[in-house]
Amino acid sequence: MRTRTRLARIATATAALGAAAVFVAVPSSAAPQQADHHAPAKAKPTIVLVHGAFADASSWNGEITRLQQRGYQVIAPANPLRGVASDAAYIKALVDSVDGPVVLVGHSYGGDVISEAAYNDPKVQALVYIAGYLPDKGETGLGLTSKFPGSTLGDTLQQVALPGGETDLYVKQDLFPKQFAADVPLSQARQMAASQRPVTMSALAEASTDPAWKQKPVWDLIPTGDKNIPPAAQKWMAERAHAHTVVVPGASHAVLVSRPDKVTDIILNAAEATTK
């Protein structure tokens, strides 16, 4: 009897070991795999903010804060304001140093610069113009400003002769708030007037070359209270470039300072479009 009981126990244990062996032998790869239908997310572009004449990189402070809060890498270089071709080469060198895609944003004369800097550059995914020039080949800032009535800039300029025959242009400090930044608090507008960076007269008269806005998606913000570049000229250029356009009623040429929320929104629209 004891022998039979012992044999039964052995048989039971052997069967259990066999079942365990079968279970262990099943490879994990035999389980059905779920297909991953989600494409990898595209990297966020670096936002490069190019200021224009009579301004400096601090004009972008409101946008920099908001963009950084949204997780974007931001660079706001000092635009030399010496000439379209040389300034464009300077910005292009900066873009080339960035790892990954870029959205280029230009204010005022900075529009001339980004139009040339981004030409034939696959790294630049989109162009954003803020109260800016969108010149075609052969056009100048001065020519586009005078193409439509409305600019009062010429009467406010102060000329400073430089060694070598070049001329720097400033907006006269007492006229700067009304001319450039009418919707900016007066104390801040006066600070901007004191710290403005001059542009050379030859830069505004320099003809542009082939523009990148013919190759890339374009966004354009137009302030209707602009006294530097007539809103009618900005509208004409935006339509020619088939730009996604936002109009900010009553805003001044310094809309990037007075309305950083609106300017940030259009930059985000361009940046997010590049990641879809």
Automatic annotation (TrEMBL):
Q: Which InterPro entries match?
A: AB_hydrolase_1, AB_hydrolase_fold, Sec-Metab_Biosynth_Hydrolase
- Annotated Gene Ontology MF terms? hydrolase activity
Keyword annotations from UniProtKB, A to Z: Hydrolase, Signal
**Signal peptide residues on this chain, from the entry's feature table:** 1-30
Q: What residue stretches are annotated with the AB hydrolase-1 domain? A: 47-265
Gene3D superfamilies in the cross-refs: alpha/beta hydrolase
Annotated protein name in UniProt: Alpha/beta hydrolase
